[in-house]
Amino acid sequence: MSNSLRGMLAGLVATLVLTAVMLLKTSMGLWPELNLIRLLVNLGSIQTVAAWMDHFIVGVVVWGMLFGGLDAMWESRAYWLKGLIFGVFAWLVMMILFMPAAKAGVFGVRIGPIAALVTLGYHLIYGLVLGVAYGLLTTYYPAKAREKSSATPHG
User: Which of 3, 70, 80, 133 is the most buried (most CB within 10 A)?
Assistant: First the structure.
């Protein structure tokens, strides 16, 4: 199984877990001012369904494939730790690029001080699940060894 496919499958698992956490937070009425789907709707002037699709595309395809692509370049560390580090990286990208674009300010300052902390928690959960799922997929579905060409001289 390729790193890209492992990354996307792990990204799907992590995005599903993150989505459950986001829905749980919303159903409990915690931090109602921080609704990432509403921010996506406002950012792109899109419908809620499209915002959810964007959420999954970013979590599965963008971050999942990037994690898989970076795997070979990272030192040999525990996958859960790689995932946490990657989660912090993804959070910084969100805080510096996405939040200002969504008119929430850098690190979401216009939403309030809790925005940076809650989104950091989201990204740590996402990264941890991404790393663990990727590690499990790597263990159970390792990359195929490249076969030597029959034209290679033996000797």
Answer: 133
What tokens appear for 51 in the block?
Answer: 């915002």
pTM: 0.85
* Rounded average pLDDT per 10-residue block, the chain, 155 residues: 93 97 88 80 83 92 95 84 96 94 89 90 97 95 61 51
Residue 50 near residue 43, CB atoms below 8 Å? no
Phi-psi sector, 141: left (phi>0), alpha (psi -120 to 50), beta: beta
Which residues lie closer than 8 Å to 114 by C-beta, 6 or more apart? 31, 33, 34
Residue 21 and residue 126 in contact, taking contact as beta carbons nearer than 8 Å? no
Exposure letters 66-100 (e unless 16+ CB within 10 A, then b): bbbeebeeeeeeebbebbbebbebbbeebbeebbe
59 near 18, Cβ under 8 Å?
yes
Q: For 65-107, how does the pLDDT look when each residue is reduced to its tens digit (9 = 90+)?
A: 999 999 878 877 799 999 999 999 999 999 999 889 888 899 9
